[in-house]
Specification:
The structure holds two protein chains of two kinds. By secondary structure, chain A is of the alpha/beta class. Chain A has helices spanning 2-40, 48-51, 64-78, 90-95, 110-118, 193-206, 208-221, 229-237, 248-256, 293-304, 306-313, 353-366, and strands at residues 55-60, 81-85, 104-107, 144-157, 185-188, 224-226, 243-247, 263-267, 279-286, 319-320. In chain A, strands 1, 2, 3, 4, 5, 6, 7, 8, 9 and 10 form a ten-stranded mixed β-sheet that branches. In chain A, α3 runs antiparallel to α11 (306-313) and α6 crosses α7 (208-221). Chain A is globular and about 60 Å long. Chain B is an all-alpha fold. Helix content of chain B is 78%, strand content 0%. Chain B has helices at residues 2-17, 23-36, 44-68, 73-115, 121-127, 136-147, 152-159, 161-167, 177-202, 205-213, 218-247, 250-254, 260-269, 273-300, 322-353, 359-392, 396-405, 407-410, 413-427, 436-458, 463-471, 476-505, 508-513, 521-530, 534-548, 552-558. In chain B, α6 crosses α15 and α16 (359-392) runs antiparallel to α17 (396-405). The chains are: A alpha/beta, B mainly alpha. The interface between A and B is large, with 53 and 47 residues.
Chain lengths: 374, 559
């Protein structure tokens, strides 16, 4: 008899969800009808919230926590419903070129945005407030621009290795001795956006042959190869590895952890004759032919407001390009923030990265570092 | 198949062109058509409906295979040289290790709870099947929390000087072959346990008695009488475990291991679709190989039980072994049920106090219910005609339709998802990127489950009932709706609830096909756990487990 009850419960579930679907479907079409009505009655005195109703499809390759907070704020401020797809690869935008789904693409890697632009998948525009972004951090037609920046370097576990013992240059990794350090070091898989950007910068500096050699060496010597930088900072924090190659804000994030936070960071290649630290930036691009173009422009203009540029950085603890807008960092991290004016950065313009994107992936794979974990 | 197409085609042609066709060809086609159906063809609506269902079910897989042929010789060569050998080794070694251990644990537990006087026997019977409701990726999360590099075990270990003195610093690495093997074994052994349990209970005591009277010890009886009789049960349990290990993505990727399924997922993330298709083809071949091995072992041996002189088996007194046995059973229970639940409750508690049960959470829960509910509903709807056709109109065509419909069952969800992306993005863009793709994929994946359950109740409905209804003047369609359907309903419902739960738990296809803004509980568990935000992952995981308990009773009864 119990069986019958159980089946009844399940049936109720299914029925309810079926009903919900119908109701949801109806309201959805209603909304659409309403929307078209609203646009028709342009003379009507509609409130700001209503005028802005609608949707915005956001593809994002950035960590979900940072982006979701930003999008929630956007919806709150404008009334436009932001529909996110997190962990979206830039190549998904390429794949969907004939069937465009996204309105904007948020990326951690300016190289990816540059690549999309090169392939004609982004649309130039002139959103209000774009002149707050320095020219080297946006494309010529403003199809994409960056808000925050990060530099590459080594996070290390102070219990395992001291600052003096740490490598200070990316070239140091050519030495096999770093494989002998207790617990070794960690890098990401080759297909990671940050890794691709870094290798592109090295190619710009060294040329392909030396870069390829470097990749082969770290592939051989690294004690751990991880999916993403978050895994590396946690592994180094927990003492699984002595150090790892990450972006500087992962160091900031690890400082915030309640435990495993005895870590330091090396900004590499700072000497007179060295290349300087490799810089990458996170930003947003306007996808060509997206379903809600007007809302996408609204999003860009909203994002360019100083307050929202600060929100873009949010919990990521990256550096705001417009540092004078005053990004706020938690007290645990604040003393360790190193501004861009204090470090020597590589002289390659960040927006050059897009030109390297495709070939770099090929080079990485050819040199023996897999794009994906195996 | 060729024959099927021709007769289908000719039949429609016949209808269209009617009188123009020479009458002898028409007669020939008609005769052929009737002979296929042994003089009793089903209605055209039924045929078309089931035909399209089976097409929907099998197209994604064929499409993936088709695509793999266009990957180019270069890519094939590269993958064959570098990627595939390593993946084969990873996949097969894990598969073999998990399957063997799951069989050992499953059979030994089943034997203990059915044949010995272990204390609390009745309770153990169903409690030991419980790990079935814990999806392995949830199990993996809990064991990362416990044994991970900054897990609970590390604190205990490093805080007890004795252990540190003996073994040095904390050195358990959960991200290893051992870790994956442990987690998958602990959460898949119930497949074997349930089936072995049922078959042990049905086993006739007469055989054991005969052996015993000839001087065999209980251990000898187990090896010489029980075990050979259990072979079919072990075989089907092992196949289930093995197929599961092939298709698992969640637990394997969370523990940083890479098998074919994980590799396909990552290739797709990197948008190397052609390589993904090539790897998929190998995975399909592996799956077919496993199914073939099973059918081979079934063909070779036939086991018969005589039921008319059935006598209940005796209960073995454990005596001095009681403590050891009890300890063993309790340990399995502790590891596979208690610890995961404790960890989840601990983190859910923290999460709920931090406000994890917010609007977003209920949105995800609702999304899960919605896609799974729709999928289950469609499964029930589609299963009935196919079962009816196969059981009442047996022929080449109907069995082909049934076979095709089963193709999603054995093949990993990741391949179904890959096929869907190919098809919908290129050919049906209006559905691409909506949540409709997701429940359709669930239907492909889980319709066979519903069909199996429905089929078992269909078998109980004698064709004579149909005949009786027909003889009283009902047309065939009315027989189906008025007589067959009401009788088939309990089985179909149970099958639907199975499909519902499987859909809620499903991870790889859900991850690949989710549309913007449409996350489900399973997706949340995966992402939050990956970011180690356990207080958000735990409530979702717990809710999935609670919902999965619903059809457990049914599953236990089925075997």
């Amino acid at each position: 008899m119990n069986e019958v009850k159980v089946i009844r419960v399940v049936l109720m579930f299914i029925l309810l969800s079926a009903i919900n679907l119908v109701v949801y479907g109806c309201t959805n079409t209603d909304n659409k009808l309403q929307q078209s009505n609203e646009t028709d009655e342009s003379t009507g005195a509609t409130s700001k919230l209503e005028a802005n109703s609608g949707e915005l499809v956001v593809y994002s390759a950035r960590n979900e926590r940072f982006v979701q907070a930003l999008l929630d704020k956007f919806t709150q401020d404008t009334g436009i419903r932001a529909i996110p797809l997190h962990e979206a690869s830039p190549l998904r935008v390429v794949e969907e070129a004939n069937n465009v789904q996204a309105d904007v693409y948020i990326s951690n890697d300016l190289g990816a945005l540059g690549y999309l632009h090169m392939n004609g998948l982004l649309l130039g525009s002139n959103p209000k407030g774009i002149d707050t972004i320095p020219e080297e951090f946006r494309s010529d037609d403003n199809a994409y621009f960056a808000i925050s920046a990060r530099s590459r370097g080594f996070i290390y576990n102070k219990d395992l290795i001291s600052e003096e013992e740490m490598p200070k240059s990316i070239e140091d990794l050519f030495h096999a001795k770093w494989a002998q350090v207790k617990n070794g070091y960690a890098v990401t898989r080759g297909g990671n956006g940050g890794m691709i950007g870094h290798v592109s910068a090295l190619r710009y500096e060294w040329g392909d042959e030396k870069t390829s050699e470097w990749i082969a060496v770290i592939r051989e010597n690294a004690a751990g190869i991880y999916q993403g930088h978050g895994d590396i900072r946690r592994a180094v924090g927990a003492g699984e590895h002595a150090f790892g190659l990450v972006n500087n804000y992962y160091y900031h994030q690890q400082l915030l952890e309640p435990r495993d936070n005895n870590v330091g960071f090396i900004y590499i290649d700072q000497e007179e004759d060295q290349m300087g630290v490799v810089v990458n930036a996170a930003g947003v691009g306007l996808v060509k032919g997206g379903p809600n173009e007007a809302n996408a422009i609204k999003f860009l203009e909203w994002l360019l407001l100083p307050e929202n540029q600060v929100a873009f950085v949010g919990q990521s603890l990256e550096l705001l390009i417009n540092s004078h807008f005053g990004a706020v960092y938690p007290p645990e991290v604040e003393p360790y923030i190193v501004g861009f004016n204090e470090i020597k950065a590589q002289n390659m313009p960040v927006k050059e990265l897009g030109n390297f994107f495709e070939d770099t992936k090929e080079l990485i794979e050819k040199s023996g570092l897999d794009l994906d974990l195996r | 198949m060729g024959q099927v197409h021709i007769s289908q085609f000719d039949k429609t042609k016949k209808i269209k062109q009617g009188k123009k066709m020479p009458s002898n060809i028409l007669q020939y086609v008609n005769r052929k058509w009737l002979s296929i159906w042994k003089g009793n063809p089903p209605g055209l609506v039924l045929i078309l409906f089931t035909f399209f269902t089976s097409l929907l079910m099998s197209i994604p897989i064929f499409y993936v295979i088709w695509r793999s042929f266009f990957a180019g010789g270069d890519r094939w060569k590269r993958l064959l040289d570098e990627r595939i050998p390593q993946l084969l080794w990873n996949t097969l070694s894990l598969n073999l290790a998990v399957t063997v251990c799951a069989v050992i644990i499953g059979v030994s537990l089943a034997w203990i709870v059915t044949r010995t006087d272990i204390p609390g026997r009745k309770i153990w019977q169903w409690v030991l099947a419980l790990p079935l409701v814990i999806p392995p990726y949830v199990g993996a999360v809990t064991y990362i929390i416990v044994f991970g590099p900054s897990g609970w075990a590390r604190d205990i270990w490093n805080n007890s000087p004795l252990i540190v003195d003996l073994f040095g610093e904390y050195s358990i690495n959960i991200y290893s072959f051992g870790g994956v093997f442990f987690v998958l074994t602990m959460f898949t052994y119930p497949y074997v346990y349930i089936i072995a349990n049922a078959s042990l209970r049905k086993m006739n005591h007469n055989f054991e008695e005969a052996a015993s009277s000839l001087g065999s010890t209980p251990l000898q009886i187990f090896w010489k009488v029980n075990l050979p009789m259990l072979r079919p049960a072990i075989g089907s349990g092992a196949v289930l475990v093995s197929l599961y290990v092939l298709s698992d993505f969640g637990a394997i990727s969370m523990l940083r291991y890479v098998t074919f399924t994980a590799a396909i997922y990552f290739q797709r993330q990197g948008m190397d679709i052609s390589s993904a298709a090539v790897l998929s083809l190998v995975l399909v071949l592996l799956t077919i190989a496993i199914l073939w091995l099973e059918s081979l072992s079934k063909k070779k041996n036939k086991y018969y039980q005589t039921t008319n002189t059935y006598r209940k088996p005796l209960t073995l007194r454990l005596g001095k072994w009681k403590l050891v046995t009890f300890f063993y059973v309790s340990m399995v229970f502790l590891v596979s049920v208690l610890i995961p639940i404790i960890v989840l409750v601990y983190w859910s508690n923290i999460g709920i106090r931090m406000g994890a049960l917010d609007e977003r959470f209920f949105g995800f829960a609702f999304n899960s219910l919605k896609v799974s509910g729709i999928a289950a509903f469609i499964c029930m709807l589609f299963a009935m005609p196919i079962i009816y056709l196969r059981s009442r109109y047996p022929s080449v065509i109907s069995s082909a339709i049934e076979r095709l419909s089963y193709s999603g069952y054995a093949l990993p969800g990741i391949i179904v998802a890959l096929g869907f992306i190919f098809i919908f993005n290129n050919h049906i863009p209006s559905i691409y990127g909506t949540f409709h793709m997701l429940y359709l994929a669930f239907v492909v994946r889980f319709l066979p489950q519903t069909m199996q359950a429905g089929d078992s109740s269909m078998r109980l409905i004698s064709p004579r009932i149909d005949e009786a209804a027909r003889s009283l003047g009902y047309p065939p369609w009315k027989v189906m709706f008025k007589v067959i359907m009401p009788n088939m309903l309990p089985g179909i419902m149970a099958g639907g609830s199975l499909a519902f739960v499987s859909s809620i738990k499903e991870l790889p296809a859900t991850l690949m096909l989710r549309s913007p803004g449409f996350d489900t509980l399973a997706i949340r568990v995966y992402f939050e756990a990956h970011e180690r935000i356990y207080h958000l992952a735990a409530p979702s995981a717990l809710l999935i487990i609670l919902m999965s308990i619903i059809p457990l009773r049914y599953m236990l009864k089925k075997y």
